[in-house]
């Protein structure tokens, strides 16, 4: 018998003297899914010497196994064809594949795509449910990616129409992922997902900063504010609540990055499997985007062809560059000072012998005087206190200043007012406080004719900036002797802080007049609970406030209600103003001069989305000549400035004040 016998000569094989079949060099394992059964009575066919033309069963049999005979109906079957094996399980090598196998694979399909994995486990048992889950997860992944691409960073722009746009980034991303090989596609998809996650987190930070501080998040400067936020949470919610919030935020951030990366990877794999359809859809989407962009097509007032993510990235890059440039330019500005070389005897000579107080009322903004919810109560207090001052022999004038900050970061307002420089961010604050620029309070210290002190109930740790502000002594929250409870963020009621100031400094016999900087904190958010005014002789060490604090409202009951939070904010301002003016009436004298103002407007939830940054400022004095010096300022008589009062930038006050009271510039 010839060794070259093919499948057409198999029926003529000598079945009486079977030969031991010669095994090929490499034999693939038997296909366990084959449905044909071997006939034990049949003799195995002799294989060809080169393995070509042997039956499929023989080719698939392991070494030493019996080879099943070819059935009669297989006589006309083409060589190498295995009809018994299912198509999904058949795997052929190049040597074994039929001549037309490659042609069928390429010309018989509409598109070239990666084969989906074979279902196993519960997916094989429940194909309908598996398809539903797959479609749902894929749809959610697509929605998540689209949300990240279209998400605005401003609360005012959160509208349904914004999320019904066509983002160019999605079209470009799909085109890139489709042409990449598998490994490179996976890496690209993961990086793209992480980038989308980072943009989403930054957009969320922008939303929070716009809500609280009236500006977006600065990726260069604002990381240090997270520690202040944590401290604020501890003061408002307790340590346990603050820890819970921090953990929740961390989990949220990790989830955003993980889900975004997984979503892009899943969509990338889908594009690869359905490359033909995906290519057509991408071309159509790209054409529609270009046409809509060129024609300026809008949907509900929003541009349909969106490129918000690319614009947001460019905006952040521009802001980083502007921040770095601003730092360098401001360092030069801070070195210039109109009063840098003014001799001590030429600084504020017209206030010699006066006890001067510079007081900041936390979050005391223009909205407190003009908003219809808060204004009635606050305006009534200002009118009443103006009358009390007049009765006690004092007079007052008031105007408006535009703060360098909004909603928070009070130290930026304080430093702007006192330094005469526009301190609008943390970098500027660090620069100016590290230098020797003359401050308003420092001018009094330089003369040598005043004792200068600071009352800082909001400072709870060492505060090296005290030397920059020219303060001989600083009393922080640890040194004011308070034994009562905290009122949310505020460490102590304003009335107690003023009482401690009277006990520690103002009420003592002195050989010099006193210049004081006082920061009042009872009007700090979340405006619950709020202290109430009590007789001055009952203040004591503050223990009396324990019951008052328990009777007050809880932050959670106030802060999240837009009406209640305005009402309570107004009440807190009323309390702070009342405490300050009552102190002047009770403990002031003919040499008392009080300058008080707000450091910034309250957050947007209270002041309104379109609120300006104006704060009221007033000067109170018993000596009429003190107010005569500022007649040309055209301020309003009394504690409530009206609409006709001038509005100045807060950084202009230092120079105006120094020159009004006789200071001579020496740059």
Descriptive notes:
The chain has 667 residues and is an alpha/beta fold. The chain folds into three domains: 1-105, no CATH class; 134-317, no CATH class; 346-660, Alkaline Phosphatase, subunit A. Helix content is 45%, strand content 9%. The protein contains 22 helices and 13 strands. Strands 5, 6, 7, 8, 9, 10, 11, 12 and 13 form a nine-stranded mixed β-sheet that branches. A hairpin with a 2-residue loop joins strand 2 and strand 3 (302-303). The longest helix is centred in the middle third of the chain and has 49 residues, at 225-273. Keywords: Membrane, Transmembrane, Transmembrane helix. Residues 1-125 are annotated as: Disordered. The chain crosses the membrane at residues 132-150, 162-180, 187-205, 242-262, 283-306.
Any chance you could write out the topology, listing elements then pairs?
Blueprint: H1 56-60, H2 101-107, H3 122-125, H4 127-150, E1 166-167, H5 168-179, H6 182-213, H7 225-273, H8 275-295, E2 298-299, E3 302-303, E4 305-306, H9 308-334, E5 355-361, H10 367-370, H11 375-391, E6 395-402, H12 410-419, H13 426-433, H14 440-447, E7 451-456, H15 465-468, E8 473-476, H16 494-506, E9 514-520, H17 545-551, H18 555-558, H19 562-587, E10 592-598, H20 604-607, E11 614-621, H21 624-628, E12 636-637, E13 647-649, H22 653-660
Parallel strand pairs: 1-4, 5-9, 5-10, 6-13, 7-8, 7-9
Antiparallel strand pairs: 2-3, 6-11, 6-12, 10-11
Helix pairs in contact: 4-7, 5-8, 6-7, 7-8, 9-13, 11-19, 12-13, 16-19
Region (Disordered): 1-125
InterPro entries: Alkaline_phosphatase_core_sf
Biased composition (Basic and acidic residues): 11-22
């Amino acid at each position: 018998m010839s060794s070259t016998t093919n499948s057409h000569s198999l029926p003529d094989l000598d079945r009486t003297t079977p030969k031991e079949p010669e095994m090929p060099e490499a034999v693939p394992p038997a296909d366990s899914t084959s449905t044909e059964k071997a006939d034990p009575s049949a003799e195995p066919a002799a294989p060809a010497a080169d393995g070509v033309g042997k039956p499929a069963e023989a080719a698939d049999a392991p070494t030493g196994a019996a080879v099943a005979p070819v059935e009669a109906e297989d006589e006309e079957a083409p060589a190498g064809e295995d009809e018994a094996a299912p198509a999904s399980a058949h795997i052929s090598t190049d040597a074994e594949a039929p001549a037309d196998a490659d042609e069928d694979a390429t010309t018989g399909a509409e598109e070239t795509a990666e084969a989906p994995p074979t279902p196993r486990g519960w997916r094989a048992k429940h194909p309908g449910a598996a398809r539903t889950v797959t479609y749902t997860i894929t749809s959610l992944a697509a929605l998540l990616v689209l949300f990240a691409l279209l998400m605005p960073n401003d609360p005012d722009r959160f509208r349904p129409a914004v999320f019904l746009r066509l983002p160019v980034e999605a079209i470009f991303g799909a085109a890139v992922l489709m042409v990449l090989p598998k490994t490179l596609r996976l890496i690209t998809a993961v990086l793209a997902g992480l980038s989308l996650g980072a943009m989403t987190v930054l957009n969320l930070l922008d939303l929070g900063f716009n809500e609280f501080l009236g500006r977006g998040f600065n990726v260069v400067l604002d990381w240090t504010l997270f520690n202040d936020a944590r401290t604020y949470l501890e003061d408002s919610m307790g340590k346990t609540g603050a820890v819970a919030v921090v953990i929740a935020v961390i989990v949220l951030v990790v989830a955003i990055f993980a889900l975004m990366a997984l979503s892009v990877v899943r969509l990338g794999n889908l594009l690869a499997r359905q490359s033909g359809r995906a290519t057509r859809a991408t071309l159509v989407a790209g054409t529609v985007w270009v046409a809509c962009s060129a024609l300026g097509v809008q949907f509900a007032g929003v541009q349909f062809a969106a490129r918000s993510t690319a614009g947001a990235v460019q905006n952040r890059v521009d802001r980083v560059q502007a921040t770095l440039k601003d730092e360098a330019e401001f360092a030069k500005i801070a070195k210039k000072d109109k009063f840098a070389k003014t001799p001590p005897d030429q600084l504020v000579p017209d206030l010699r012998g006066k006890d001067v107080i510079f007081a900041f009322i936390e979050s005391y903004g223009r909205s407190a005087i003009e908003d219809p919810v808060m204004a009635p109560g606050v305006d009534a207090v200002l009118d009443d206190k103006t009358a009390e001052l007049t009765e006690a022999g004092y007079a007052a004038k008031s105007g408006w200043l535009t703060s360098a900050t909004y909603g928070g970061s009070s130290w930026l307002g304080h430093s702007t007012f006192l330094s005469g420089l526009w301190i609008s961010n943390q970098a500027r604050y660090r620069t100016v406080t590290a230098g020797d620029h003359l401050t308003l309070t420092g001018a009094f210290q330089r003369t040598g004719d005043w004792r200068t002190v600071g009352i800082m109930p909001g400072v709870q740790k060492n505060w090296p900036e005290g030397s920059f502000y020219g303060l001989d002594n600083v009393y922080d929250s640890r040194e004011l002797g308070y034994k009562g409870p905290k009122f949310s963020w505020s460490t102590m009621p304003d009335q107690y802080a003023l009482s401690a100031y009277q006990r520690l400094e103002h009420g003592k016999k002195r050989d010099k007049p006193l210049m004081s900087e006082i920061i009042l904190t009872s009007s700090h958010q979340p405006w619950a609970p709020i202290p109430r005014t009590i007789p001055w002789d009952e203040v004591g060490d503050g223990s009396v406030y324990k019951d008052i604090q328990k009777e007050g409202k809880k932050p959670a009951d106030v802060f999240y209600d837009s009406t209640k939070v305005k009402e309570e904010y107004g009440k807190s301002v009323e309390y702070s103003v009342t405490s300050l003016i009552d102190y002047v009436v009770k403990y002031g004298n003919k040499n008392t001069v009080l300058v008080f103002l707000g450091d910034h407007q309250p957050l947007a939830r209270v002041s309104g989305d379109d609120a300006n940054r104006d704060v009221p400022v007033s000067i109170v004095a018993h000596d009429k000549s003190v107010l005569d010096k500022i007649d040309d300022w055209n301020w309003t008589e009394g504690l409530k400035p009206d609409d006709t009062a001038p509005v100045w930038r807060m950084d202009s006050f230092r120079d105006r004040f120094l020159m009004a009271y006789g200071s001579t510039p020496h740059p």
